[in-house]
Amino acid sequence: MPTWTQSWIGRIALAGGAVAPLVLSSYDLSLATRFLALAILGMGLALIWGRGGALSLGHGVFFGLGAYALAMHLKLSAEPLPDFMQWNGIEVLPWWWVPFQSPTFAIAMIPLLPGAVAGVLGWLLFRRRVAGVYFALITQATALAFATLLISQQGFTGGFNGLTNFQTAFGFRLAGEGTQTGLYYLTLTLVATAYLGLRRLERSWFGRVLLAARSRESRLRFLGYRVEAYQAVAFALSGALAGVSGALYTLCSGVISPAMVGVQPSIEMVAWVALGGRESLAGAIVGTLAGNLAKDRLSSAFPDLWLLILGGVFLLVTIALPRGLAGLGKRLRLRRESAETPSATALEASDA
């Protein structure tokens, strides 16, 4: 698709998003904000998976770290000692909770904490040249371990229930209509900013090296490139985006729990990116929005069948649409263009 066409489609989509609060109900606006927040994570997955070739099944960890970093501050701003700590007999705030009393520290930790954890994990794995199914399994095990840790430390993390009952955030009442609208526009702005930033990154020398490492890693190493450093930085950036996504999602939903950061949510995140097209940032956004909208509607109508439906979608994408909806659109466009182009024989006949 020509660049100018993509630009116009992006502008139209952004304009549509800008007027959405005027036509959506408060419930639908809340859903749209959550889905847009997840789209930020989807673009981060498209960077490390579609561009870097590393399938992560543990992005729920980074989503959760950003979400818990913000939720801890929101909890402390409401009460000096969280209620679940009092119920578990804890009388003094743990030392690692204390810095989150500061809103500046909490906001800084939203991207920095998950980004740092992703960077260290990525460096350890990529340095050992762990790739393919082994990389996916290790990241999946990390998500399982993280969710289990949160559940087991009930007195410090809220356990299975997580952190809930947020009434205000930075002086704003979360249930207020103006706050919800402002949160929607903040999320939309961050989605657009992340998209433009990642597009520029992909076209840079860094993005080209990352893409080359996906299929020509040995050749790059022979040329002297520290491939693991490029991959670790991309994984750290992807983790930071997931952290921002988690914080925005928590602001909108008012809760963060281990059920939202474990294995199943991490797989769902990958499924939506695969549906839209892992090699396309726009495809990752569309796939995340469409997939979560379908989940909201179908899981309500068929709660017992939702996991089967999710598995069917993943199989369909894997077998029939390996490049997702973005790849399907590109294939149909190329087929149409080739059909519209006169053959060499017809051109020779017309010249004669």
- How far apart are the termini? 34 Å
- The Cα radius of gyration reads 22 Å
- Mean pLDDT comes to 88
Helix/strand-derived class? mainly alpha
Which residue ranges are poorly predicted, with pLDDT under 50 across at least 5 consecutive positions? none
Biggest sheet features: 2 strands, antiparallel
Number of strands: 2
- Give the helices and strands as they follow along the chain: HHHHHHHEEHHHHHHHHH
User: Level of helix content?
Assistant: over 70%
Strand content: under 5%
Globally, the shape reads globular
Number of DSSP helical runs: 16
The strands making up the biggest β-sheet line up spatially as: 1-2
How would you portray this structure in words?
This protein is 76% helix and 1% strand. With 352 residues, it is mostly helical. It has a domain at 23-268. A two-stranded antiparallel ribbon has the order 1-2. Helix 8 runs antiparallel to helix 11 (227-253). The two termini are 34 Å apart. The mean pLDDT is 88.
Task: Please give a handful of descriptors for the protein shown.
352 residues; mainly alpha; two-stranded antiparallel ribbon; globular
Topology record:
Layout: H1 3-23, H2 26-51, H3 59-78, H4 83-87, H5 103-127, H6 132-152, H7 154-157, E1 168-169, E2 172-173, H8 177-203, H9 205-215, H10 217-222, H11 227-253, H12 263-276, H13 281-301, H14 306-320, H15 324-340, H16 344-351
Antiparallel strand pairs: 1-2
Helix pairs in contact: 1-8, 2-8, 2-11, 2-12, 2-13, 3-5, 3-11, 5-11, 8-11, 9-11, 12-13, 12-14, 12-15
